[in-house]
């Protein structure tokens, strides 16, 4: 018996097949670009997602696909797909890095339990209602990315609390805020009914099964957002368990049995199980490092790592990675970045090294906000494709001042999605969570580094001084 996890990410779609013991036995992926036709926009055609799914599925062994008995979904959070009655997209999906709605946030009452960012579904839908009214009048559903994909495969139109609570249109439990939706002038009928992430939400259609090489009629779990799926796939179970994920963006989350109190700049969200988590969400991790790699003309990532970590850290050069605004802890969509302190003698290795440090310091800012709220975080699990190089892991440990344990699962969110499929089928139950947790290996222990601490202090000071320029 096999279970398929589908992780619909910002820049790629990933598939993982796990066996009846939760072990990953096959993996594939397909990358795609994010369209930025105008400054501040971030969109992807849903046809691009579908093509990526078909391509990734074709790379999986045919016999393993035939053994799949349930599917679970993980998806990039916050964005939105506007569809007609049949679930056909009316326009490209709008994604979480999109900032075109940044001037519309004053419609949300203050303070909010969770911070509101321009790329959340609520602000994006308000922008559509104001700027694409004719299209909005034809809409029937406003779906989260993973929910659109599930319906494309023949599943039910529904959503789960882990995604709903991050739309800026629901309370932290995930229940839709009808009064707020009405205040914003959005149709309440756009928003799908709620069900648990692990609930069955339809079966695979014959057409989709034929396209993907799977068996028609197999159960599909409703699914969850990528961050809660990564927590599930990484084995976060106990109150206080912490996880750092690094991908296009970065997240630091801490599990909680009860809803954490509201803290400015941090998020209180529902997990893929019936738990909660507190999160610091940073937009500029992989997206900033990839931009820097391109600017500095490194043809491969190994070359970028090699030159960056062979270079001495500069005591003058600081990189602010805020290329697309920032969420935690600043909640500043207007934030911008770049290098400061450059001299004529700098090398591209020095600049790349400063970029790695700047991203690490931005993650530290989010972690420090969690610590200030009462979280005593000294150990974290580490997941995400952007944290494999041991030199980068050591820098993260040193900058964050935490012990990092790498999860023995390179595709945590995809694995978490597959586990949800097993729960929906009834193969696993809540009591099995502990036995499903993957092993985690010590990856890096923090080392005292006074010079790094000074560079971090300068980074924080420069952020505060330069953001008034923008």
**How many domain modules?**
2
Share of helix, binned: 25-40%
Shape: globular
Contiguous uncertain segments of 5+ residues: none
The CATH architecture term of the largest domain is 2-Layer Sandwich
- Category from helices, strands and their pairing: alpha/beta
**Tell me about the biggest sheet?**
7 strands, mixed
User: What distance separates the N and C termini?
Assistant: 55 Å
Rg from Cα = 21 Å
CATH class type of the largest domain: Alpha Beta
Report strand %: 15-25%
User: What's the total count of β strands?
Assistant: 20
Q: Which fold name is given in CATH as the topology of the largest domain?
A: Nucleotidyltransferase, domain 5
Query: How many helices does DSSP assign?
Result: 16
State the CATH superfamily name of the largest domain.
Answer: ATPase, nucleotide binding domain
Mean pLDDT: 94
Family: Belongs to the FGGY kinase family.
Organism: Caballeronia humi
GO molecular function: kinase activity
Keywords: Kinase, Transferase
In short:
Belongs to the FGGY kinase family. The chain has helices at residues 46-58, 62-66, 121-131, 133-137, 145-152, 161-164, 178-183, 206-212, 226-234, 286-295, 301-310, 348-372, 390-400, 412-425, 433-436, 450-466, and strands spanning 2-8, 12-18, 24-31, 43-44, 68-75, 81-83, 93-94, 141-143, 200-203, 219-221, 224-225, 242-246, 250-256, 267-270, 276-282, 318-320, 338-340, 379-383, 403-407, 440-444. The chain is of the alpha/beta class.
């Amino acid at each position: 018996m096999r279970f398929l996890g589908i992780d619909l990410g910002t820049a790629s779609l990933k598939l993982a097949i796990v066996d009846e013991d939760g072990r990953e036995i096959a993996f594939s992926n397909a990358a795609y670009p994010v369209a930025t036709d105008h400054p501040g926009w971030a969109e992807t055609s849903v046809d691009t997602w579908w093509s990526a799914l078909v391509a990734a599925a074709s790379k999986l062994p045919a016999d393993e696909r035939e053994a799949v008995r349930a599917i679970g979904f993980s998806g990039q959070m916050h964005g939105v797909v506007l569809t007609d009655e049949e679930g056909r997209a009316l326009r490209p999906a709008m994604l979480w890095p999109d900032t075109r709605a940044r001037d519309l946030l004053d419609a949300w009452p203050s303070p909010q339990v969770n911070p509101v960012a321009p790329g959340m579904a609520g602000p994006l839908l308000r922008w559509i209602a104001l700027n694409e009214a004719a299209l909005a009048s034809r809409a029937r559903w406003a779906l989260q990315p993973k929910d659109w994909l599930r319906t494309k495969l023949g599943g039910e139109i529904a959503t789960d609390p882990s995604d709903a609570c991050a739309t800026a249109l629901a309370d932290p439990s995930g229940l839709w805020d009808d009064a707020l939706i009405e205040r914003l002038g959005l149709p309440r009928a756009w928003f799908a009914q709620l069900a648990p992430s692990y609930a069955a939400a339809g079966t695979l259609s014959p057409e989709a099964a034929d396209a993907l090489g799977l068996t028609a009629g197999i159960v599909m779990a409703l699914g969850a957002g990528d961050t809660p799926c990564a927590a599930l796939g990484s084995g976060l179970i106990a109150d206080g368990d912490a996880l750092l994920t690094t991908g296009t963006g970065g997240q630091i989350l801490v599990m909680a049995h009860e809803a954490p109190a509201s803290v400015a700049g941090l998020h209180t969200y529902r997990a893929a199980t019936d738990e909660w988590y507190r999160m610091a969400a940073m937009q500029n991790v992989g997206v900033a490092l990839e931009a820097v790699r391109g600017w500095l003309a490194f043809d491969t990532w190994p070359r970028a790592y090699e030159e960056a970590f062979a270079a001495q850290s500069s005591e003058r050069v600081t990189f602010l990675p805020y290329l697309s605004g920032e969420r935690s802890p600043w909640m500043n969509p207007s934030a911008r970045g770049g290098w400061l302190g450059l001299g004529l003698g700098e090398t591209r290795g020095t600049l790349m090294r400063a970029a790695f440090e700047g991203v690490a310091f931005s993650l530290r800012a989010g972690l420090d906000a969690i610590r200030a709220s009462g979280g005593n975080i000294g150990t974290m699990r580490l997941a995400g494709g952007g944290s494999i190089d041991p030199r980068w892991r050591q820098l993260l440990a040193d900058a964050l001042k935490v012990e990092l344990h790498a999860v023995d699962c390179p595709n945590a969110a995809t694995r978490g999605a597959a586990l949800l499929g097993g729960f929906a089928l009834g193969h696993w139950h809540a009591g099995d969570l502990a036995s499903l947790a993957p092993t985690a290996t010590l990856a890096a222990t923090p080392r005292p580094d006074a010079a790094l601490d000074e560079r971090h202090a300068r980074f924080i000071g420069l952020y505060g001084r330069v953001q008034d320029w923008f």
